[in-house]
Amino acid sequence: MLDVSPATKIDTVLSKLGTALEAGDIDAAIHLFQADCHWRDLVTFTWNLKTLEGREEIRDMLQSQLAAIKPSGFVQDGKEPASEGGGVTEGWFEFETATARGYGHIRLKDGLIWTLLTTMSELKGHEEPKGMRRPMGAEHGHDRNRRTWKEKREAEASELGYSEQPYVVIIGGGQGGIALGARLRQLGVPTIIIEKNERPGDSWRKRYKSLCLHDPVWYDHLPYIPFPENWPVFTPKDKVGDWLEMYTRVMELNYWGSTTCKSAQYDEAKGEWTVVVNRAGEDVVLRPKQLVLATGMSGKPNVPKIQGQDIFKGEQQHSSQHPGPDAYADKKVVVIGSNNSAHDICAALWEAGADVTMLQRSSTHIVKSDSLMEIGLGDLYSERAVASGMTTRKADLIFASLPYRIMHEFQIPIYDRIREKDADFYAALEKAGFMLDFGDDESGLFMKYLRRGSGYYIDVGACDLVIDGSIKLKSGVDVSHLTENAVVLKDGTELPADLVVYATGYGSMNGWAADLISREVADKVGKCWGLGSNTTKDPGPWEGEQRNMWKPTQQQALWFHGGNLHQSRHYSQYLSLQLKARHVGLETPVYGLQQPHHLA
C-alpha cells in the first residue's frame, strides 16, 4: 500500500527541494512552490529578514544568492512529527549552508509548498559554548600566574572601552539591549551596552507604579535563562527590573549604567563609528565597528503641541514620565489617550482617589486579558501548551512561520471568537460611549501591534471603571487648547485639570538616529516599524517585514533592535548572528535591502 502519510509528503518535497537547490536548478526548485507561495527567510539565504511572495520573487532571490549560499542537507526533523489538517500538511526540517546550520518549517497544499520558513541556527565554527562545548570554568593544573574568574572579569571591565575597543556598541539597556548583549556574549563578540539609567531594569522601575506586563510569562522568557516555574503569570514592573539586573550580572554583560550617548558618526573609510558617551561625568570615545540602537520600538515620546501649554498652571507629563498616582489624590486629572498606558494610568489614579477623565480621540481595540490568553495565545504560550510539549523555541518558530501577508487571515477567526465570547462586555463599553475597533480588517491586537505598535488595550480591569463611569470618558473629540486650569475641547467642553497626562504614544525609532547621528542618516534609513500594510498609521508600499528592525539598513553598520520581550528574545538571535558573521569576516551578501519610503 502506498505510504501517503504527512511525514512521507514532507520528505518527498524536501528531497526534491534539496536536490534542486544543490544542483543549482532554479526552475526545478520554483516548480515545487504553489503560485501563491511565501518563503520567509531569517538570515540563512538572504543575510536579511526577508519574505518572498510568489514564484518570481523566489526566482529572483535564488538567482542572486544560491551560488554563494550553497544550501544542502534538507532533512525532516524526526523529533517533530509532521501533521495534517484542513488540506495543509506541515513539518519541520534541518539544513545547512556553506557557513551556517539552519532550521525550518514547511506547509504544503496539494503537494506543493505554500509557506516556507528558513532560519539560521548557528554559524559553523562559531557555535555557542553550550552542551558538550560548555566552558570548564575551573583550570586544573599548576600556574603561578593564574587569574581567577573574578580577576578576569574585572580586567575585562576595566579595559573594554578604554585600552580595548568593543566590536559592537548597543545604545539602550532595556530588555532589547540586554537580550542582544547576552547573545553576543555567548558568541564571543566584544560588546558594551550604554544605558542612561543607573541600574539594569531602571527603565521598568521608573515607570508608573501600577505597571505590570500584559503579556503572560510563557511569552516573555529571555534567552538562555527562562523564568522559573513559580514566576507570576503577569510580572510587576519592579520584579521585571530585578530580573533584568540579575540577568545582566549572571550573563556577564559589559553594561555601562549612568551613561548617556552624546553623538555618533560613521567613518566609511575606516569602517568604524566614533561614539562619544558620558560615563558618570566623564566623556569616553568608543570606536565600534557596529552600532545598534536598542532604544525601544516605541521610539521617542510623542508630546503633542497644544495651544496654552505654556500658561497651564498644573502639571503636564508624558505617560513615560508619569510617576504614579500617589501625589494626585483628590486632584482632577485629564489623561489624553485611550490605549494601554492611558487605561493603566487612569485606573491607578482612580484607585488613589483622583477625579480622572479619559479623553479618547480615536477608536481603540480592546481585548480582555483572559480571552487573549485562552484564545489568542493558549496554543503556543500557556501552561496548557507547555504540558502538551510546546517549547518556547518551537512556539516562536510557529509564530514566525506565518508570513505577514496572510497572518491577518489566521487572526480574524480568533478575534471573531473573542468578540462572540465577550459580546456583553463590548456592548457595555459601547453603551458607555467608548469607540471600539478590531483593526482595519477586523484582525485584532497582534496585527495592530505589528503594523503600528499602538491602538489597543489588553484589559486587566480598567474597562469596568469606564463602563460604570468611575473613569469619566470623553470620546470622539480632540483638544482645542489649554487654559490656566482646564483642557478645552473642540466642542467647547471644559475639563478642569490639575494634571494633564499625554498618553499619546511614541515616534519612530529613527528619531533617535536623528538626535545621536544626524537627520540625514535618519532620513537615509527611513521609518522604523510597520509592515507597509496601507492600514491606519502603517502607510504602504508593502514591505513584508518590520521596517528596519533586526536587519541591515541603508546606513552601513547601523542596526535597530527592539520590541516586546518575545521579539527581543526571538530576533536577538538573528541580529547577533548577522553581527558575529561580520565580526569574523564572513561574506554576507545582503539580498533585498529595504528602501526608505517614509521618514518618520
Automatic annotation (TrEMBL):
Keywords: Oxidoreductase. Residues 127-152 are annotated as: Disordered. Gene3D superfamilies: 3.10.450.50, FAD/NAD(P)-binding domain (3.50.50.60). The keyword Cytoplasm does not apply. The keyword Oxidoreductase applies. InterPro entries: Auxin_biosynth/cation_transpt, FAD/NAD-bd_sf, NTF2-like_dom_sf, SnoaL-like. Residues 19-114 form the SnoaL-like domain. It comes from the Bacteria. This is NAD(P)/FAD-dependent oxidoreductase.
